[in-house]
Specification:
The chain is mainly alpha-helical and about 525 residues long. The chain contains 24 helices and 13 strands. It has helices at about 10-15, 35-40, 50-55, 60-70, 80-90, 90-100, 105-115, 125-130, 150-155, 170-185, 190-200, 200-215, 220-225, 230-245, 275-280, 285-290, 315-325, 345-350, 355-360, 390-395, 420-430, 435-440, 460-465, 500-515; strands at about 25, 135, 265-270, 275, 300, 310, 335, 370, 375-380, 400-405, 410-415, 450-460, 490. The strands form six sheets. It has a three-stranded antiparallel β-sheet with strand order 1-3-6. Strands 2-13 form a two-stranded antiparallel sheet. Helix 11 (about 190-200) packs across helix 14, helix 15 packs across helix 17 and helix 18 (about 345-350) crosses helix 19. InterPro entries: LysM, LysM_dom_sf, Lysozyme-like_dom_sf, Transglyc_AS, Transglycosylase_SLT_dom_1. Belongs to the transglycosylase Slt family. Keywords: Signal.
Length: about 525
Amino acid sequence: MHPLKKRISRFTALLLLGAPVATLAADLSLPLYNWSQVSSMERPYDPDDPLIQILSMEEIDVWARIRKGFGIPDLDNPLVASQTQFYSSRPDYFVRTTTRASRYLFHVVQELEKRNMPTELALLPFVESSFNPQAYSSAHAAGMWQFIPSTGRDFNLTQSTFKDERRNVLASTEAALTYLQKLYGMFGDWQLALAAYNWGEGSVQRAINKARAANQPIDFNSLSQYMPLETKNYVPKLQAVKNIIAAPADYAIVLPKVDNQPYFVTIGKTRDIDIKVAAQLAELSIDEFKALNPQFNKPVIAGSSDTQILLPQNNAEKFKSNLAKWGRALSSWTAHRVTNARERIESIASKFGTTPEVIREVNNIPPRMVVKAGSTLLVPKPEHAPEKDIAPELVDSAMMITAPDVPETRRIWVKVGKKDTLTAIARRNRVSVAQIKDWNDLKQDKVAAGTSLKLEVPNRQAVAASSKRPARASPASRQAAQKAPVRQVARQAPTYRKAPPAPSRKTVADNTKKKAG
């Protein structure tokens, strides 16, 4: 008999007993054992036994597991020293970031090990976003792994007014690791793959071509002369974080303990549920709930067979128990698709028994702006409406198209010149001959010189607004954890992707603060 320790963590017990409430986000694929045999440890010792592996995992935390899996050659670069000094001289910031990372690290390390990837890549969100899944950059990069919109779409990360999967902890991690694997396959060098993650594979390839033309080595240090400042510092920053994690005592850093077990479990959601209701059922604060489920932009989670929410292990059981006793509607919201260009917010509010202010606030629509046809609005569910969920296809494609609230046309008077024809006048003013005749009660196409004609021409402001590319509504704002001082582009998601006029922005900001309060 091998003298294994008899204490078994509650998490291990949960796995062995087959927890009914959820599926582990990082599936350890453990078999079910006879509990009496397990508790007395009356089983032959086998180092490949999953149970033996789990019990031995209790002896180390995630930091030790990360150190064990380091696989990228250390970078010898003068910028590493300065970045290490930068991080180590800010122990409070470093500890805050690693504390925030403790929610996500086990899952990221588990996924890296499944793919046989170097575990220092688990530290990359430290550089990208300070492990803040709500981080948003000036380049519109979002989430813990900072995907820009186009790259996010390349990796099937849905971006709509209802959700932004670039912030989804599970989906964005899978996409980021897949992308890094792709880049490593292109360049055969992890440091160049990391540079490409920050700068783009095309940019790195062009730098390689320049180096080859100059008979220079193909490595990060040699290519850095062609890189922008941000990319020159990018890999050194990761190396600096790696140095501190490898030997925190050398830098007078005390890392928070991160248990070598999942922080969260996943729960499938097949019905719509308000975020505040979900948090209440799980007995979590809304901030903690959103820290694990930051992809939901609206106060409702639209249910489908693919929808998942993450909850800490203890709270998953509470969620299940409280849900069974709830007995009330889970969601107070529904969706309305605008199909008529003349449909105004006031009429929509009246239809759903609410106020224009409520619709503007929940959909982040500034004052003096209207919604265009094709927009999808979140609206309060009427009191006696049937329990019907928002269609999943509508959730995935929902967008918001706004325009200044100005008339579509304006009236002008045009004096007919000696050589003018109705066709020429119509062409100059972007209207039709039939319209001119209708507006002026003309029976024929000829009109005498000197006649004043009434025209309803397109309003220039309205034309300018409609000619712009429709923008998706920005994610709802929230008070995020402190942004990374080393990546100045990362910041809290704004309320609007394009800022409205100053008075309107202030009004909406005030409303957001009141709501947060």
